[in-house]
């Protein structure tokens, strides 16, 4: 499961250093029903620790470029959906993200 079908991200926050990512509340709903609710929830605890280790590995090879996006895993685990499902993701202190997967037109 090491791939993404899409990446949706929020606007950048200047105060990101003040956010405790290891205890960040998250809530994911599918069609109005809670699919996941957690405090923290990232398998590695604080995803920034994973990111620093990842960046250190890249320094030995290709490095990373300014503006490059690196994903650090999930807070909700792998939750399957179906075409037509409406999803809403809420991280405490961030704007929510709403997404509907449209059924194929073929």
| Strand content bin | 15-25%
Rg from Cα: 16 Å
Q: Output the strand order for the largest sheet.
A: 2-1-3-4
Counting helices, strands and paired strands, the structural category is alpha+beta
Characterise this structure:
The protein has one helix at residues 47-59, and strands at 25-30, 33-39, 86-91, 97-100. The protein is α+β, with helices and mostly antiparallel strands. 12% of the residues lie in helices and 22% in strands. The two termini are 26 Å apart. It is globular and about 45 Å long.
Keywords:
106 residues; 1 helix; 4 strands; globular
How would you concisely characterize the structure shown here?
The protein has 106 residues and is an alpha+beta fold. The protein is 12% helix and 22% strand. The longest helix has 13 residues, at 47-59.
Outline the secondary-structure elements.
Elements: E1 25-30, E2 33-39, H1 47-59, E3 86-91, E4 97-100
